[in-house]
Amino acid sequence: MAYANPMRKLLPILPFLLLTLAPASASERQRVVPAMAGNVEKVAARCEVPSDMLALRHPLPLVARRLTEGRQLTVVALGSSSTQGAGASTPGNAYPARLESELHALLPHMAITVINKGVGGEDAGQMLARFERDVLSVEPDLVIWQAGVNAAIRGTSLDEFVEQMNEGIERMRARGIDVMLMGPQNAPRYLEAPQRREYADHLMLLSRLHDAPIFPRFRIMSHWLATGAFRAEEIVAPDRLHMTDASYYCIARLLARAIVSARPAAQAAR
Q1: How many CB atoms lie within 10 A of CB 171?
Q2: What is the largest CA-CA distance in the chain?
Q3: Which end of the chain offers a freer environment for a tag, N or C, measured as fewer CB atoms within 10 Å?
Q4: CA-to-CA distance for 14 and 130, rounded, in angstroms?
Q5: Is-contact 234 221, C-beta < 8 A?
Q6: From CA 4, how far away is CA 159, in angstroms rounded?
Q7: CA 238 → CA 39, 188, 189, 192, distances in Å?
Q8: Cα(88)–Cα(250) distance, rounded to whole angstroms?
Q9: Each residue of 109-148: pLDDT tens digit?
Q10: Backbone phi and psi for residue 48, each to the nearest 5 degrees, phi listed first
Q11: What pLDDT sits at residue 40?
């Protein structure tokens, strides 16, 4: 699909649209992710958000099939530094490692693999350049794609960002891979980006165009701050951009529940 034409047609109505690898072995499935500083697991209730924030607005058909089969699920976490784990005390406390642990807890009968393909500082174009090696060759069931924050901060061309994201989504979909977009974090350096609202709006539009869900990281972190569940310094690192052990843990915890909700309703009720 040529992207330029549908994009030009939809841009005028954007405001209205916005409103309305191998399976893990048994021993690997039992491994424990390192404990976080402050033992954040004890305050897991602070992670909670209204259930509608975790509702999938678009389907994940391959994930649903894998959950129905109950055998294995392979996820690639693609992104930049907040996927790689900048701000976490150890690599095991980045959200992909935590997500694997949380999915194991929810799906103990399944072989779960979450592969961290985050590279700090990259934008969507650089991620696209390594698609064959880091995404397509892995043959995952789901890719969680986090991009846009670096582009917004650097003032990268919005059209370029959209075209690159569109190409990446189309390449994954051509291989039958489910795609979930990861929304930006609520952090001061992102809030100061001149075009951050435009980037967020266009990420939403990409979600609607491609029928791909967005995990609403910004809304979730905003909810924590507004309700007093967390103070800003507990969920944003001293660099004013990246997340902390606590917020990575909570994001992974909530993300796992969102992914599992793709399971067909009849099966989930058992």
Answers
A1: 16
A2: 53
A3: C
A4: 31
A5: no
A6: 9
A7: 20, 10, 11, 16
A8: 13
A9: 999 999 999 999 999 999 999 999 999 999 999 999 999 9
A10: -60, 145
A11: 56
The pLDDT tens digits of the residues spanning 29-49 come to 333 344 455 565 666 889 999
Residues 6+ apart with CB under 8 A from 131: 168, 171
Average pLDDT over residues 57-79: 97
Specify the pLDDT at position 264: 86
Query: Rounded to whole angstroms, how far apart are CA atoms 63 and 127?
Result: 23
User: Looking at the predicted structure, is the pLDDT value of residue 7 above 90?
Assistant: no
Which residue has tokens 């846009």? 148
What burial letters (b/e) apply to 101-132, b meaning 16+ CB within 10 Å? bbbbeebeebbbbbbbbbbeebbbbebbeebe
With a cut of 80, say whether residue 76 has pLDDT above it. yes
163: burial class by Cβ within 10 Å (0-12, 13-18, 19+)?
Answer: middle
| CA distances in angstroms from 2 to 6, 7, 31, 100, 161, listed in the order given | 8, 9, 45, 36, 15
Helix/strand/coil for 43: helix
The tokens describing 265, both together, are 């309703």
CB atoms closer than 10 angstroms to residue 4: 11
Model pTM above 0.70: yes
Q: Alpha helices of the chain — where are they, by DSSP H?
A: 4-10, 14-19, 26-29, 61-69, 81-84, 95-106, 124-129, 131-134, 149-154, 158-174, 188-191, 196-210, 217-227, 232-235, 245-260, 265-268
Give the model confidence (pLDDT) of 140-197 as tens digits. 999 999 999 999 999 989 999 999 999 999 999 999 999 999 999 999 999 999 999 9
